[in-house]
Structures are given as C-alpha cells and as structure tokens.
Amino acid sequence: MDRNRQASGLSRRQFLKYGGAALAASVVGTTGYLALSNESGEISVERILIPIRRLPPALEGFTIAQLSDIHLLPYTRPAFVAKAVAVANSLNPDLTVLTGDYVWRESEAMFELAPLIAALNARYGVYGILGNHDYWLDVDLVKAGFREARIPLLINEHIPITLGGSTLVLAGLDDGWAGRPDLDTTLAGAPADAPVVLLLHEPDLADVYGPDGRSVLQLAGHSHGGQVRLPGSGALVLPYLGQKYDFGLYRVNDMWLYTNRGLGNISVPLRLNCTPEVTLFTLVRV
What is the pTM of this model? Predict the structure, then answer.
C-alpha cells in the first residue's frame, strides 16, 4: 500500500543521525541526575483490559503478552532480555506476541537473541512480526533467527486460534515503513465473524487500518515512548509513524490501539519517565 510507505521527509540515515543527536543534545548538562534516574534496567508490567463488543464467551479472559523493540546490542544486553522473557512467562499468557525491531547495529546479534526468545512460552503459541529496523539491518538474518527460535513470523498472514468452539484471528502485517503491508491478503480466508487482533509495528498506521472495521485491537511498538519523557512536555524525540500515538492505549474508530514502550534503547542508552515494559492484555466482553 503506497500511502503507508510514502517518504517521511527523512531518509533512514538522517533519521538515525538527527534523532540520536537531538536526544543526546537534550540531556547535555544533566548527566549526573540521569545516571541516578535511568530506567533502562527496569521492567514494568502493564496490565490492560480490552473490552470487545460481542466477544464470544469462550474468549472472555483470554490473555496476550506483548514484548516489543528489543534492539539487542550494544545497549540492550542478553541478560536483560532473559529477564523480560522470564517476566512474560510468569504471567502465564494464552498467547505471546513480539512486535518488531529485534536488533539494532549488529545483525549477527539475532543469533544471540534466538535462544532467548525461544524460551517464551504461551498456551496457544508465540508469534512475531517485523519492524523497520529489521529491514534496515538484515531482514534475512532476522527471519533466520526466528526460524532458529521456532517462532513463526506473520508477514501479511493470519493464524486462527480456536478454543471452546470460538475463533480469535491473530493477523500480522508486514512493516508499515519498510515493508509492504496488505490487510486484504492478510485476512483472506479468515472467519468473517471472528475478532481480529492486528499486529503492526507502527502505531500511527492505526489511522489507516482502524477505519477498515475488521480489527478490534492493534498492538504496536516502534516509538519506544520516546525513551526520554519530560514532565509537562512529553517525549523529546519520536520517529516517523510513531508521533501521534506514542505510548499507551487509544481508541481509533472502533479499534483499540496499544503502543508498547518497548524493551531496548537506540541512539542513547537512556530511559527517563519511560520504563521498558512487558504488557499483558485481557480480553473482556461488553
């Protein structure tokens, strides 16, 4: 869909250069304070109720754990990812999803990440999608890492999850900035009356897919919540397609959207008022 891949006004190189420079400049002179306040090593568990009209009774209470934007190495270390995986598993989710951007500067780090995410466990499986950095670095290596971890990547495809005679559709779109997302292809053959949970890395594309009406919930990442948020002014730097819905829960038409703050860091090894998160969603009937 060409409108989802339009030029942002910044090339990938410019985005990484100027975004990092702006974030670094914003913290000059406050190093001592930030060293005491940096939340990069912390993990917050966010528990979110998602009310869905006409949710089949068998899906009442169904839980989904989300991890996003791991960006393994150099700032995000394997031990921290292992800690996040343990947190996710401790929530005993029905389903676990990974919503893109797995490594940052070192493509080979994907093979360090593979055994870590392979330890994720959920009753109805673990699934992932791609993010823009996965394409920018080496998408083939990322795909190979997922094969090694035995975790399916959903790229313009869906998986029906059936329990108690009812079906939940998990739909994964290709990345909205660097890939070729196609919702019609993704949902081809899906049960028309089943609720659809849409995985799409970039949150601002909810404005494109929310009005479609087929998805009840989009799970996104991408923005990192800005990594650094100042009281009264919010995020200092936000990426293309992650500026309008930068973190938390939103309602876009009849679709819920949740933007996960992610686990990892890029540009600077810093989080302030923006703790890394693992999210647990519970579907409830209204």
Answer: 0.89
